[in-house]
Recover the amino acids of this structure.
């Protein structure tokens, strides 16, 4: 009996650790404990039942009473245990839950298997795509290397072509610059030679004797009449066939350095011999069109030219008949933009030297031009010409080249879209006028070109023979004027008020 108890107890203790692993094991453990308890007490009960036969009746009675009570307690305990186990089974529904968990785990396993199969399929597709992409990348890399090699060869070829084109362009620009300087120098010499010819014009006095240079200066001696006529014909043909030119930036050969601001170059040689009275008076130059009269220095006397410059200018020619009635020249032309109110100005103040005017392109760069002959109260024809090629500029007064220079705003462009006025200097776009900078006098036959006029065209314009073609602005573009500015129509400057 004791060996059986020990075995049962050992079995119970060995399996006791697994009783709480799951609900089904808990139920089994309870049944095993109940059975163990029953197996313990049944032998005790049988042993007690056999004892009354050997022992006396009196002393054994309390023991049986205790045994019966113990048996009754065991039955009640058994009933309570069964009832408790049934309630636990009914409350937790262990079997159903276990089955549900098993079904869920099976469903999860199936889903995992399906996901794994899908992932494996996608991985296989991805590996195939990577292999294709790698092969395409190798092909593209080969093509890129070939294209890079081709582009390198083309870039080298283009660089060589650019060098060749640049050399050709520089040579062409150099030729054009030389031709330009030659044309201007020949024009000045021709004007000097024409001044020596005893040619009388209707309505004018015969000019005085020609200025003959001393024999000690053979380089200034005039050619024969036949050579003079041939030179004139060749020069006029070159001027007529040259037409509008393209600006260039090649350096001129043998040019002088530009004058500092406040100074100017005056031509020597033939131009010096022309400082006497003009060969032809303004009364012989007719067909000048309309004229503008600025009666006083009021800030309201201003004329707007509209539209202004429609494109950027790399060359400019401003020509006009001018007669001033004050002791200084004032402002002839003013062009202002939003970023600079002095993009292009021809102006003088009453505080400046009499007869001097500032030629400004892109403030603060300027050149001071000498216009003292304009202070005599008579009509004079002026032409101010500039090109961005080497920054060359020329000043013609009554057909004579009286000032020139270079390195003035070389390679610069005058931008379009600004405000262009006559008679006043702008300190802001379309405003900011000052009476000390006003022009008092008359302007006639005004024209603005976006190219360089050659001396022949300047001479034709000053003598009224021909108005050069291609003018971008004239007095016909005078859109608005001050209340006191008068606009008149006259055929010749001397007939203008």
């Amino acid at each position: 009996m004791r060996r059986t108890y020990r075995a049962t107890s050992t079995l119970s203790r060995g399996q006791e650790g697994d009783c709480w692993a799951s609900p089904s094991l808990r139920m089994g453990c309870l049944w095993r404990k109940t059975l163990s308890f029953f197996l313990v007490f049944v032998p005790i009960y049988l042993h007690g039942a056999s004892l009354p036969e050997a022992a006396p009746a009196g002393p054994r009675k309390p023991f049986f009473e205790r045994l019966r009570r113990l048996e009754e307690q065991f039955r009640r305990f058994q009933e309570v245990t069964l009832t408790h186990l049934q309630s636990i089974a009914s409350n937790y529904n262990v079997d159903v839950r276990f089955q549900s968990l098993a079904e869920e785990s099976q469903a999860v396993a199936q889903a995992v298997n399906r996901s794994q199969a899908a992932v494996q399929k996608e991985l296989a597709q991805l590996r195939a795509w990577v292999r294709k992409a790698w092969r395409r990348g190798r092909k593209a890399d080969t093509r890129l290397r070939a294209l890079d090699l081709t582009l390198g060869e083309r870039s080298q070829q283009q660089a060589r072509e650019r060098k060749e084109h640049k050399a050709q362009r520089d040579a062409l620009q150099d030729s054009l610059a030389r031709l330009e300087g030659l044309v201007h120098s020949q024009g000045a010499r021709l004007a000097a030679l024409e001044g020596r010819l005893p040619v009388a014009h209707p309505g004018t006095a015969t000019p005085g004797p020609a200025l003959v240079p001393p024999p000690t200066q053979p380089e200034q001696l005039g050619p024969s009449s036949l050579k003079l006529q041939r030179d004139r014909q060749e020069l006029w043909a070159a001027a007529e066939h040259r037409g509008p030119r393209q600006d260039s930036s090649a350096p001129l050969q043998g040019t002088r350095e530009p004058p500092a601001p406040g100074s100017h170059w005056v031509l020597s040689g033939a131009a010096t011999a022309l400082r006497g009275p003009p060969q032809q008076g303004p009364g012989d130059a007719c067909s000048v069109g309309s004229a503008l009269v600025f009666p006083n220095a009021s800030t309201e006397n201003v004329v707007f030219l509209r539209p202004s410059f429609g494109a950027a200018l790399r060359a400019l020619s401003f020509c006009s008949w001018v007669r001033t009635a004050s002791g200084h020249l004032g402002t002839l032309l003013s062009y202002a933009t939003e970023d600079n109110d002095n993009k292009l100005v021809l102006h003088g103040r009453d505080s400046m030297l009499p007869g001097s005017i500032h030629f400004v392109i892109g403030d603060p760069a300027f050149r001071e031009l000498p216009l003292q002959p304009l202070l005599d109260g008579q009509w004079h024809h002026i032409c101010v010409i500039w090109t961005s090629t080497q920054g060359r500029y020329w000043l013609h007064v009554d057909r004579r080249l009286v000032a020139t220079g270079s390195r003035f705003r070389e390679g610069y462009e005058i931008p379009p879209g600004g405000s262009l006025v006559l008679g006043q200097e702008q300190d802001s776009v379309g405003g900011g006028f000052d009476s000390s900078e006003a022009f008092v006098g008359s302007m006639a036959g005004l024209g603005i070109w976006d190219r360089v006029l050659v001396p022949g065209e300047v001479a034709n314009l000053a003598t009224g023979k021909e108005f050069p073609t291609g003018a971008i602005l004239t007095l016909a573009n005078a859109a608005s004027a001050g209340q006191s500015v008068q606009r008149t129509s006259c055929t010749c400057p001397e007939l203008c008020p």
